[in-house]
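## retry 2 of 3
previous attempt timed out at serialization; input unchanged, resubmitting
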Amino acid sequence: MEYDEVDQERLIERLWSDGYALGGRSLDDETCAALVRGYADDARYRSTVTMQAHGFGRGEYRYFAYPLPAEITSLRDRLYGMLAPVANAWNTALGASERYPPVLGEYLARCHAAGQLRPTPLVLSYGAGDYNCLHQDVYGELAFPLQVTVPLSARSEYAGGESVFVQQRPRAQSRASVALPERGQLLVFANRYRPVRTLSGFARSNVRHGVADVRSGTRFALGLIFHDAL
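## retry succeeded, writing output
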């Protein structure tokens, strides 16, 4: 995946205006299919979570173990490099002092120094009737404010399963939005908060995300979170 300057500008504009943005294809069909096949390989993963056992929804997801598959490492590194300037600009707008280094390895070193050692990229699996409750993916003191989802299943393989975002707007009712990325398409979104322009500058809007009910079929997706977990 390589974005030209115009593609990046459009994606960044949507992140500022909406808190989420659809991008171009980040994984080809062959890579998506390989990641779906690899879901059954226990050696790839450090942890498996059954959502209904924890009240998270219905479905299952598995966190990769280090070392990550090469294609996941490469994509995570490139996307972080594109998104770190956005995260820094958001913190500037909100008056937050934290700044993110330009290279993911440097940020992960900070996470590891803070005791956040466990990798967070994951594959999610939803069948008919499954869903993911609204949540925020914060796994420790350090949390990068943007994350990524890439569907691994074609839209013809399932119905429903839209990505859902609910934003708590300053002095206003919450706003819900949905996105329907195609197989391999990039979906970037705020995982915890984002700046919203007001008459006096910027205010913080809390954001939660989830997945609507899958009505039929099976939906696999790759999740890329840039901070590691405690």
